[in-house]
Amino acid sequence: MKLTITACMLAAFALAAPAVAAPQESLGPDAEALASARQKAVAFLKTAQADDGSWSSPDAIGITALATHGLMAAGLKTDDPAVAAGLAKIAGAAQEDGRIAVPDSRLPGYETAVCVTLLQAADPEEYAAIVKRADGFLRGMQFDEEQGVESGDVAYGGIGYGPGGGRPDLSNTAYLIEALRAAGAAEDDPAIQKALIFVSRCQNLESEHNQSASAAAVNDGGFYYHPAAEESPAGRTPQGGLRSYGSMTYAGFKTMVYAGLEEDDPRVQAAIDWIGKNYTVKENPGMGSAGLYYYYQLFGKALDIADMDRLTDDAGVARDWRKDLAERLLAEQNENGSWVNENERWFEGDPSLATAFALMALADCDPRPID
């Protein structure tokens, strides 16, 4: 699904267009450099794959799904041996209750969601039975009336890492919505609209959708991780609010696009305003190097599905974000084809995970479809 950012946002946020008399500038990174980077990254992931089709660990179903998706994002087909082995590993992890994870996993929500998105991209017909059960499992994890959570509760509509309690967060809820949309859910699906309620409460925007003290204290349109426990890894502002940060703001914006919000919705406008003011590919704004490759992946996906070619940064410069992001990623690629974050928080010291995120981001940077 694409949300076209049209005249309203072009005026509000100065999404740049070339002058009428100027030749149309091509968007995105250099094709030859991009192809070379992908080729090297694919070679790395193939050497890093275990004999059982997994990456990082036999039990790391989430990383295996992301690495397999990264290979497909680089243009590999499902009959490629590495992709086929990754898909077989994931299909073999499908459980009777619908989760796609090893039985004792602590992260079945996240793992099932990323697996559903991958399997739908690979072959919806072949994996239809697995995806149907997984869809039911994910829906059953949502904090709603069936779990005794009413709409006024700040946990309402979200999901966490696993069923049976715990706490919901924006990252897992964003993965949920992407998986449900991939599996065929419409924008007005009840689970997606419930999730939108939770996501809106993660936004630092005082409105009818979020009347928390944190939103009023910051009110900058960005997003944070967890409203139920009032938690943001980026910390608090001097005023006591939960500080917005990059990866969660792109996750929130992406979710609003998937949930069908119109371009003139104040939540959408406020999110894009924050993105423009905090535009950067040098760090995860508000978090520095922590979660950098996850940030890159969310950055690319959110702007791509919103169909935004350019946006204006805080200095008033119209940015070709695809070119900016791709060039940054290419500059950070290691000689062996991998990417890795020296900041190991959230497992990004694992080159298989960081490389998977980078390949997925590069796919969104490329306006030219891969044959």
From TrEMBL:
Keywords: Signal. InterPro entries: Terpenoid_cyclase/PrenylTrfase. Residues 1-21 form the signal peptide. SUPFAM superfamilies: Terpenoid cyclases/Protein prenyltransferases (SSF48239). This is Squalene cyclase C-terminal domain-containing protein. It comes from Alienimonas chondri.
